[in-house]
Amino acid sequence: MTKTSRRSFLRGMGGSTLALPWMESFGKDSGMVEPARRIAWFYVPIGVVRRGFFPGEAEAGIPKFTGSRKHMAEGVEQVPLGVRPLELTPTMKPLEKMREKVTLITGMDRTFQPGTDVHAQCASCFLTSASAFTVTQSAYPLARSLDHVVADVTGENTPFRTLEFSCNSHKDNKESMYFDNISWYGTGHVAPSLRDPRKAYRRLFGTKEISAYRNITDLVLDDARSLKRRLGYSDQQKFKEYFDSIRTIEEQTEKLEKMRSQLAKARIDEPPEARLPRGEYIRLMGDLMVVALQTGLTNVATFMVGPERWDTPYLFESLFEKPRSHHGMSHNQGKYIDDLLKVDHFHMEQFAYLLDKMDKIREANGTSLLDNTIFTYGSGLGDGSTHQYGALPIIVAGSGGGRLATGKHINLSPNSGPVPKKDGKYLKLEGGIPLANLWLTQAQAMGLKTERFADSTGNISQLIA
Questions:
Q1: Thinking of the domain 39-216+267-463, which architecture would CATH place it in?
Q2: Which tens digits make up the pLDDT trace of 251-300?
Q3: Stated pTM of the model
Q4: CB of 32 within 8 A of CB of 22?
């Protein structure tokens, strides 16, 4: 290579390519002033168990399934409005190491359009938040999602304008695409997700099939040795860590593929995907997303942990001996409260794993990949048992290059949940702040010159650094 930069590629036999992370030895050639800003979303389906997640709700009554979208608020302590110290509740405990780099935001509500399925709107409308009945081509208030709106401005110089990752590989899907996607080019036009680790790996790194397949790090090894001699000591260590990370992704991908093929031959009631180790699958897809952000393959990514309402079970390998249906358990919190709390904690562990991984990756100015990313954990339901679509669980990690405040709890609403009220054609939420206000704030932090997104009423000033 005659010129190196953060987006340089090593090329090997068979047309394979491997993107490189930023290294200080490249700095003068690349002309980089500051690291790129990135943005990503970590979507968790079916809400959370509120008493484990939200401050002040530890003693709240266990709700029964009602399907009414009303919040069962008995025993809830009213949390003061405004900015307060961050309290890590039991579900959020995995974030202890990262507590100074995350912010909990409570009191936000998403758009809901009556007359259509609650679960479908949870996922499909999470990043769109169009006002109810303003989209005439769809039964849902679904428009171009925020990731693509941001990518219109930030994705011009990246190989992929956006990347969509999903941890649902099931083939027995009974629901429509609206339950299983959060990223949309526009109304009715879904942005397909990468779901198979091997296919995702090949797409990101450009590996072509050759008669005698060799893994990608072998194919570019000669170029790598040549480049390594031009690096300083710290960059040589970073180079080794990066290649070890890619090698680990390869090995984990092979392991899961072999496991899937073996399970396909077994006589079990569930599909083979149900018995794949859930945590390994999520972390592997997450590793692929982190590498893509690290190397500048993209600056915008969505990550869907699982689909809404699927009854197909998952093997939460560290929790249960057999696959379990998250959706099925959510409708009977009284019976499965302890198991559901374990699932919520499990999902937070995967989020914390990715935060830690991103925070260890150094960038041009000494900050970390996490510091230069806005990475949001969230769900389209505040509680899976009551189907409430207000008081959502939202955590924002990273500061987008110092543009957002971290290490706080921002409570935007005095209400513990939404109060349905008739207002013309649809139900309007009293007290809650539109989720689109957060999306507007994030869009502005990413450099968009806009004063509104979807049904937003303004930005969240408390979140701006």
A1: 3-Layer(aba) Sandwich (3.40)
A2: 888 888 888 777 777 666 666 777 888 999 999 999 999 999 998 889 99
A3: 0.87
A4: yes
